[in-house]
Amino acid sequence: MIALYGALMSGGWFLGQWLDTVPALGVLPQNETQIHRMIMTATLVFIVASALPFVPGAEIGFALIMILGTKIAWLVYVSMVTALMIAFAFGRLVPAQTASAAFAFFGLERASGLAEKMAHLTTHERLDLLISNAPDRVVPALLRNRYLTLALLLNVPGNSVLGGGGGIAFVAGMTGLFSLPLFFLTLLFAVAPVPLFFVISNAAG
Description:
The protein has 13 helices and no strands. It is mainly alpha-helical and 205 residues long.
């Protein structure tokens, strides 16, 4: 994990140095293809990085808009939604036994046992199990309003400590408590504030 995130940080630094040349180049007929290729490459890297747990995807998107301009805000928005959908889909594909074993490997015995119990339960049964094991009154309310909770978590500054957007989406998929259509709709609204802010600011300016 340390090697992986070290590689990501190094890649991000080199990407930042590369992107820094975009404003200086400008979009001219002779370099338009090169500029578009650079933007598409940056977008692909952004999607992959944002789908990974503990990567600050929102902050990276913010930086991309600052470097490349508000015209790519819509591209950052679509890319972030795509990244979180990928993370969610991977979470859905993780077998409960694998999740249980992973928790046990990291010494999280209670989480391991809970994952094993949830393996063969329906969505409602899983929700009831989690609520019954919740330590206080706040957590059950958050679970019952899980889509709103998800939207809030994705917009909490510094949520990379909690796993970042990719980690949150991955866990959401792994729990089996979120339906694909409602998760997607939640993302459409939850990811919109930052790109929308830049679009409105640019229009007002």
